[in-house]
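hiii so um. not sure if this is the right channel but i have a protein structure encoded as tokens and i wanna go backwards to a sequence. like what aa goes where. can anyone help
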């Protein structure tokens, strides 16, 4: 009997050993290719994911990048993050290479968690979905069509500040910035402006936004599980809106050009096929996320830095009040007004340099290629980091210093300031983001001064930058 149990124990130990050996081999095998960039693979399965994420949680996301650039004396280094063999690309030349070789050598890539939250991408893939979106959006997000939205944005901003900021002595900025950008996105993307209707989306939307790029563990209570449930709830509401819009378009109650939703419903592909309702719902959902999280982070950090830097606030206030005084009572902002906000936009750009709303993005190698003398195998994931240039003294002297004059004249060198990507891969929503940020700045500065309630509040990154305590402030309204 003892021999039987001993045999079972040996078999169990052998099985565990073999399983671990296979796991270790599968983790190591991609890194055995010749002439790879320097770097390390980390632990089996998780690789260096925890180090990559934890530097952001601690408020220094650039540390993961710069520590390895120094260690390996290289602008490229290999690693393993999110369960994938990857190469981190650092610097302007690397950015230019990735942005310029879209769909030639590299293609957009998202973690599997994103594909699971958006089921329509499983019918194609995230690369195909990215290509479709970039074809759909330019007609609506170019400067010319956006000009007519400035007044609408100003109206929404005025209502937002009257409802949620006025008559408050203290408030928390980040949740309110998210509410502002979400209201704008709902109105401009699908003509939903009723506050009660928007409220149906708001809470599940925040669960979705916080859980979409998390560990893909679909168990009750996990952020990923909450994100899937939230996406399903929002999708149901979107499908109701889509079906009603189709009826309204057929009856002439809605205009083909009134928003992105109408445009999507009436635009066919090269084969004359129109998008299915679920496909449209997922694309609108993706747009809501893209048009909300990054801009709300930028607006929040503008409030933070204007509180910390009264001399900067003073110049922004002077510029905005010159515009305000040029308007007749009740007159809304227009395109020309926004284009006069040059110093304010320089300030916003410097905020996005120091605290980039988009920390970076992934690509996938769709062919084997050589860059900077190193071999990059097909299928490897490639990550470009905004911090690799934004906080590098090679490109921005004294990178920790807040200096809006960096953006005067010609501004930073190409491919060094990349909050919206660059080159052919420039974010199509850049101009939309510029408008919503500047309209926010105009309305907040002409109404109030403020001070931070937590002077040393940290910025954390999870996966987007945010104030650790959501930026509580004390308001001081300007006297009429």
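sure thing!! here u go:
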């Amino acid at each position: 009997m003892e021999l039987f149990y001993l045999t079972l124990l040996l078999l169990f130990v052998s099985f565990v050993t073999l399983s671990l050996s296979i796991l270790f081999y599968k983790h190591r095998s991609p890194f055995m290719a010749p002439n790879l960039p320097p770097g390390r693979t980390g632990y089996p399965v998780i690789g260096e994911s925890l180090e990559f994420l934890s530097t952001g949680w601690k408020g220094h996301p650039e540390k993961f990048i710069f520590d390895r650039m120094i260690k390996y004396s290289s602008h490229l280094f290999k690693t393993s993050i999110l369960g994938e063999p990857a190469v981190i690309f650092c610097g302007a030349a690397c950015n230019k290479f990735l942005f310029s070789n879209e769909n030639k050598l590299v293609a957009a890539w998202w973690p599997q968690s994103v594909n699971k939250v958006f089921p329509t991408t499983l019918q194609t893939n995230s690369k195909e979905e990215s290509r479709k979106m970039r074809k759909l959006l330019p007609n609506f997000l170019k400067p010319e069509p956006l000009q007519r939205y400035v007044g609408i944005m100003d109206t929404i901003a005025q209502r937002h500040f009257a409802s949620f900021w006025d008559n408050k002595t203290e408030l928390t900025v980040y949740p309110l910035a998210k509410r502002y950008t979400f209201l704008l996105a709902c109105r401009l993307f699908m003509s939903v402006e009723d506050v009660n209707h928007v409220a149906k989306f708001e809470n599940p939307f925040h669960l979705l936004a916080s859980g979409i790029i998390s560990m893909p563990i679909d168990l009750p209570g996990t952020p990923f599980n909450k994100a899937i449930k939230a996406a399903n709830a929002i999708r149901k509401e979107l499908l109701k809106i889509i079906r009603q819009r189709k009826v309204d378009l057929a009856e002439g109650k809605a205009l083909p050009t009134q928003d992105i939703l109408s445009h999507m419903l009436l635009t066919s592909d090269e084969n004359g096929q129109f998008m299915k309702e679920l496909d449209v719902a997922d694309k609108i959902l993706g747009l809501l996320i893209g048009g909300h999280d990054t801009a709300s982070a930028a607006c929040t950090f503008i409030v933070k830095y204007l509180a910390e830097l009264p001399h900067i606030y003073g110049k922004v206030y002077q510029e905005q009040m010159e515009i305000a005084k040029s308007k007749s009572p009740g007159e809304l902002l227009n395109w020309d007004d926004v284009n006069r906000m040059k110093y304010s936009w320089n300030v916003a750009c410097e905020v996005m340099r120091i605290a980039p709303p988009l920390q970076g993005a992934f690509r996938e190698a769709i062919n084997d290629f050589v860059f900077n003398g190193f071999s990059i195998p097909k299928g490897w994931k490639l990550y470009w980091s905004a911090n690799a240039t934004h906080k590098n003294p090679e490109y921005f002297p004294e990178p920790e210093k807040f200096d809006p004059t960096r953006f005067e004249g010609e501004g930073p060198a190409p491919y060094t300031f990349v909050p919206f990507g660059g080159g052919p891969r420039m974010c199509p929503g850049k101009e939309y983001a510029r408008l919503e940020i500047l309209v926010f700045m105009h309305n907040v500065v002409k109404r109030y001064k403020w001070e931070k309630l937590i002077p040393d509040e940290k910025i954390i990154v999870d996966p987007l930058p945010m104030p650790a305590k959501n930026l509580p402030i004390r308001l001081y309204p300007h006297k009429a």
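oh and Residues 223-250 form the longest helix (28 residues).
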